[in-house]
Amino acid sequence: MKAVLHYRASAGFRAMLAHQAAAAGVEAVVVDETDDAGFAHEIADADVLLHVLKPVTAAMIAGAPRLRLVQKLGVGVNTIDLEAAKAAGVAVANMPGTNSQAVAEMTLALMLSVLRRLPYLDPLTRRGEGWSPDTDLIDGVGEIAGRTVGFIGYGASPSPLSAALEALGARVIYTARSPKPQLPGRFVSLEELLATSDIVSLHVPLTAETEGLIGRAALAAMKPGAILVNTARGGLVDEAALVEALHSGRLRGAGLDVFAAEPVDPGNPLLMLPNVVVAPHQAWLTPETLDRSLVVAFDNCRRLMAGQALENQVV
């Protein structure tokens, strides 16, 4: 069995991949996401595509006549043409839970970075000007303690983060498909969450139902001076409306790991705003996440070779 990892893999990731692939009896090949010719060559006789971020299109699937599985290294499958996979008889599987700890920690990091204006203070300090910041900055920073954090979606990442936030002195509320009384936090409507949260954090998948969820109406309904954090999917947010809310001062700031178009265009107006902290869709990316992900991926390769049911099959 041959598996192709379509990703710019680090040396450490390549070593983990080689080790686990050998243990599973799988030939593993790595192709950089920018190498279209190399990918077309390697996928032509591959059985499994290990998919990270670059969209899996119908053309990619058509160019892989032996392909039997697209294994997402992560949770969201919105970057995969599911209908094309289904039509070609190609299974699609994901791996919920493998990146939850990493995403939870990055979400907290973005919350704190926006509250404490770290991107502003870091270069200022490096220039030897750390003791002479804009005096208005001091009025604009704050603490997690005493604030209300609202989670839209309450899955595997918000759950452990909620306990940490409560330990720091925050109040936690959430909205989800149904209440989760066994977890920290109070279940509320979306309307109440937007109106009362000092920090709103997004943790839902991108679907036809959730696309543009945080648009002008939702932003206008948010508490003045609130912070928006998004480690889920960029398409959940109307970016033009968010720029307006941030520029006007209605929102205090935003912490964004994801964008509507990725990789994010350097000309995106969100990148020009000093009250925005950004990262390149790497909330999930830690060596620990990668190790957990490869265990799941090669277990599914073994299952595929043995004719067994796949774990977390989506299509």
Please give the alpha-carbon distance between the first and last residues. Answer: 20 Å
In percent terms, what proportion of residues is strand?
Answer: 15-25%
Annotated CATH homologous superfamily of the largest domain: NAD(P)-binding Rossmann-like Domain
> What is the second-level CATH architecture of the largest domain?
3-Layer(aba) Sandwich
Kindly report the oligomeric state of this protein. single chain
Widest sheet: strand ordering = 8-7-6-9-10-11-12
Radius of gyration: 21 Å
Biggest sheet features:
7 strands, parallel
Indicate the mean pLDDT.
96
Number of strands: 12
Shape: globular
Structural class: alpha/beta
SSE pattern, N- to C-terminal = EHEHEHEHEHHHEHEEHEHEHEEH
Q: What low-confidence regions span 5 or more consecutive residues with pLDDT below 50?
A: none
CATH class label of the largest domain: Alpha Beta
Q: What is the number of helices?
A: 12
- Kindly state the percentage of residues in helix: 25-40%
The total number of structural domains is 2
CATH topology of the largest domain: Rossmann fold
Structural notes for this entry:
The protein is an alpha/beta fold and 315 residues long. The protein folds into 2 domains: 2-96 and 286-306, Rossmann fold, CATH 3.40.50; 100-278, Rossmann fold (3-Layer(aba) Sandwich). Helices cover 38% and strands 16% of the residues. The strands form 2 sheets. Strands 8-7-6-9-10-11-12 form a 7-stranded parallel beta sheet, with helices on both faces. It is globular and about 60 Å long. The chain starts with a strand and ends in a 9-residue tail after the last helix.
